[in-house]
Write a structure and sequence with these properties.
- It contains 10 helices and no strands.
- By secondary structure, it is mainly alpha-helical.
- Helix 5 packs across helix 8.
- The termini are far apart.
Length: 138
């Protein structure tokens, strides 16, 4: 899918260029026009490219693992609108609750607790038609 190809291209670019220089240094060696051109080709902003380059190769692994734990076929993720996919991946990359997510994933409870902290919870429920969370009567 276009969404997967976009992030695969970014990850590939990060992997290739990370081997030569540490972290985000590769981007700083390019002029602004080169960075903008790469980002445009990938469908993201230059700032997003810079941040993604600093995050590492597996920045969206928690999202992929959560979706797998929810029983979402990876092919279903590939079918969603590229803008929605990109937004979901970007939210995952920049999540402030990453440690809680990783803990939930590591002990196998993320599929039942993600709605408490995941910035993608509403989108995941809507896009993949998951059952709504049980709401207790107050």
């Amino acid at each position: 899918s276009a969404a997967q190809r976009t992030f695969d291209a970014v990850a590939d670019w990060v992997r290739r260029n990370r081997s030569a220089l540490v972290g985000n240094d590769q981007l700083t060696k390019l002029d602004g026009n080169q960075v903008a051109a790469i980002a445009k080709d990938l469908g993201i902003t230059a700032g997003q490219l810079s941040e993604l380059a600093s995050k590492g190769d597996h920045a969206t692994a928690p999202l992929q693992e959560l979706l797998a734990g929810l029983g979402v076929d990876p092919k279903e993720f590939e079918k969603i609108d590229i803008r929605v996919a990109r937004d979901m991946q970007w939210l995952c990359i920049n999540c402030n609750d990453r440690s809680q997510c990783n803990f939930g994933l590591s002990i196998g409870i993320a599929a039942t607790t993600f709605r408490e902290y995941c910035p993608n919870a509403v989108t995941i429920d809507e896009v993949f038609n998951l059952p709504a969370r049980n709401k207790s009567a107050r």
